[in-house]
């Protein structure tokens, strides 16, 4: 499980290095969540989850407020959530979650990102069965025993609790996201190093150097696409 957390950190670090891109993606995600329900996180659980994720990426308040205000207004922009699955070199597996207002454009761009960099698209379900949807939290300032105790007090049975470097990492079922978050906040934890709903590969693979270069090119191309929200994979990218 430790390697899986390192891959999540690597992905987050990569996105942190491209702040304007990640801010734009969150702006769209916040708008959609606010538009689909009440534009208030206290009554809109989906929006609350997105805002908690945005906080861990240090998304500025003005971007959040602008997206919510847009949702309150008369904008009739509509977005569709789509998932694409495919393969990179040496059978590596990739999942791409998108949020788009032009399905044909997104499909063409995702397909091109695969095909032009040595990968290929798969059918729905060809990859996702090898991944587990997971809620992941990272906190500092407590050890695993303290975290286990506070979760038990909240009557929460999570998948795993691990100490890694300076953080305690909690892996939980996706539908436990809100409950775990609230349990931490009740215990005085208000800052998270990570608070994500993600897809974690059941088994990681290591690629030879030449294949890894091609694989990283696919990932970089996908993450640069405007409509792509998240990219998940099963490759151990190393330290």
From TrEMBL:
It is found in: Cytoplasm. Residues 79-235 form the TACO1/YebC-like second and third domain. InterPro entries: Integrase-like_N, TACO1_YebC-like_2nd/3rd_dom, TACO1_YebC_N, Transcrip_reg_TACO1-like, Transcrip_reg_TACO1-like_dom3, Transcrip_reg_TACO1_YeeN, YebC-like. Pfam families: TACO1_YebC_N, Transcrip_reg. Keywords: Cytoplasm, DNA-binding, Transcription, Transcription regulation. One of its GO terms (cellular component) is cytosol. It comes from the Bacteria. One of its GO terms (biological process) is regulation of DNA-templated transcription. Transmembrane segments: none annotated. Residues 3-73 form the TACO1/YebC-like N-terminal domain. GO terms for molecular function: DNA binding. Belongs to the TACO1 family. YeeN subfamily. HAMAP family: Transcrip_reg_TACO1 (MF_00693), Transcrip_reg_TACO1_YeeN (MF_00918). This is Probable transcriptional regulatory protein DS745_20025. It comes from Anaerobacillus alkaliphilus. The lineage of its organism: Bacteria, Bacillati, Bacillota, Bacilli, Bacillales.
């Amino acid at each position: 499980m430790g390697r899986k957390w390192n891959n999540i950190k690597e992905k987050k670090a990569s996105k942190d290095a491209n702040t304007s891109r990640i801010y734009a993606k969150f702006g769209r995600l916040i708008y959609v969540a606010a538009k689909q329900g009440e534009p208030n996180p206290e009554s809109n659980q989906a929006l609350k989850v997105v805002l908690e994720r945005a906080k861990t990426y240090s998304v500025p308040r003005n971007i959040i407020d602008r997206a919510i205000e847009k949702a309150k207004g008369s904008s009739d922009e509509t977005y569709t959530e789509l998932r694409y699955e495919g393969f990179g070199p040496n059978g590596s597996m990739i999942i791409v979650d998108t949020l788009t207002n032009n399905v044909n454009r997104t499909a063409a761009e995702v397909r091109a990102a695969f095909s032009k960099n040595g990968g290929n698209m798969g059918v729905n379900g060809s990859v996702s069965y090898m991944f587990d949807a997971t809620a992941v939290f990272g906190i500092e300032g407590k050890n695993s025993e303290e975290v286990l105790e506070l979760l038990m007090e909240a009557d929460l049975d999570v998948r795993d609790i691990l100490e890694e470097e300076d953080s305690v990492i909690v892996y939980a079922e996706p539908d436990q996201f809100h409950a775990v978050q609230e349990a931490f906040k009740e215990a005085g934890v208000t800052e998270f190093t990570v608070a994500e709903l993600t897809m974690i590969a059941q088994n990681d693979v290591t690629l030879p150097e030449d294949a890894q270069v091609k694989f990283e090119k696919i990932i970089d191309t996908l993450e640069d696409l405007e409509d792509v929200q998240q990219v998940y994979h099963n490759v151990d990218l190393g330290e």
